[in-house]
Amino acid sequence: MADHSAVRNPNRPPTHPGEAIEDILLDVKLPKAEIARLLGISRQHLYDIIAMRKPVSPTVAVRLGKLFGDGPGIWIRMQAAHDTWHAERDVDVSGIPTIRAA
Predict the structure, then answer these.
(1) Which pTM value belongs to this model?
(2) What is the structure's pLDDT at 6?
(3) In 20-96, which ranges are E strands?
(4) Which of 23, 72, 85, 88 could link 65 by a cystine bridge, Cβ 3.0 to 4.6 Å?
(5) d(CA 14, CA 12)
């Protein structure tokens, strides 16, 4: 049987958690204002996360994990992967040597 493991395109950034929230909200069928209220954050904060203008903080990750029942880890990992991908492209490290412990 052939191996069909997923291969991510390295030129495409990892999904921002806001995109995942948007997808979940389509299935949940609750207004964003209600989701924000349940999360204990402002509507604007939720809209900013969904629009990828703000990251998912650890505090919001804990709240999302409880609301959606999947725990905070997935939200933190998604945000970290997204942020790291962008940092690897934006930060010039050409002048920093690599050192090895003896």
Answers:
(1) 0.85
(2) 67
(3) none
(4) 72
(5) 7
